[in-house]
Amino acid sequence: MLWILAIGPGVLGLAADNDAGGMLSYLVTGAAHHLEWFVFALMSMVPVTYTIQELALRVAIATQMPYSHVLRVRFGRWWTAINGIVLHLLNALILVTEFLGMTAALHLIGFPWWSGVAISWGLVIGVTAYRHYPSLERLLLMMAIFNFAFIPALITLHPNPHAWQQAFGGTFTSSIFFLLLSLAGNAIAPWMIYWQQNAVWSGNVPSLSFGRKDIRLGVLAQVVMAAIVMLIGALANGRGSALANPLQWLWAAAGPATGRLFALGIFDAGFLAACTISLSSAWMLSEVLHGTPPPRAVTPTGGRSRWIHISTLTIAAACVMWPHLSIGSIALWAQALGALWMPISLIMLIVIGRDIRLMGPLVIRRRRLIALIAIVVLFVTLAALSGLA
């Protein structure tokens, strides 16, 4: 397992961003049989994701401060608090999708619904209570290996030529814009900026070049696994809509072997994301409410922040106790709402990146600024097209 030592928060953040809600969204998207649109869109998000996360890394290396502290220095306490509250609410909604995914996966393999919720909640609470961040990061990276369960799930499908033709044969519909918005929100979410910045600060990433390699590896892993899950949805050749319960839809369409392997991958995706997103929120709220970050290499789930952290996870898990929620719809909307807030998060990050007093020699130049503005325009355009469709 020495490979674990060569990677860091970039890989973990991007692996966790392929969360349970995101993977279920990709499954639903693939089941819509529009791969000719979505594979291109997925590839197009690679430079977008890398550019944003590289800027978050650059800010972390230049400022040597947690992100909320950087925001407070540049924008003041009021804007920092507003941004923190909105992102915490978005994170809470995403956490609901993580518990939905984990619980649905356990339910599929035979656990009662309520015990699936309890097991998922207990595991996330227990792991995030660990106080030494570098060790926790290594543990979560080792757990990420179960994401590879999606690969044998795809292999077990044995699709025929007609299934391949159907996967790439969908016609253009108005729902494509909303699915593209959801895809963009899953490829890069606002919480990832906090995660990248604070994980770099807490984990002591040694250099910008090391962090860039880490992010490149994470982006590669993210897009490969997302493409695999889209293919599973497209090639499963199931009947009816996958929106209500994508896991049961896949089980009925592809059989128990594929269903169990996919459920394992979904549980792992939800677990990783619930841990990283809740830690990201805890870091953010700890800095916003108390004005001071936890010591370096210490997770933010102790002290007075512990009860907010536990309460957030408990409320998110409690929302899942009703077993008849439309899992696919909630997953798509959670990712889409993150994409709607992304332009605001990115504009704030750009302003910081252009501040010579904070950034010093790492300040972003004109060419990078133009690329970042184009990304903001992309998110705004997708949001507008989704609203008009």
TrEMBL record:
InterPro entries noted in UniProt: NRAMP_fam (IPR001046)
GO cellular component entries: membrane
UniProtKB keywords: Membrane, Transmembrane, Transmembrane helix
Keyword DNA-binding annotated: no
Keyword Transferase: no
Membrane topology field: Multi-pass membrane protein
GO molecular function: metal ion transmembrane transporter activity
Localization annotation: Membrane
Spans traversing the lipid bilayer: 37-57, 78-100, 106-127, 139-155, 175-194, 215-236, 261-286, 307-325, 331-353, 369-388
Protein name per Swiss-Prot or TrEMBL: Divalent metal cation transporter
Naturally occurring in which organism (per UniProt): Sulfobacillus benefaciens
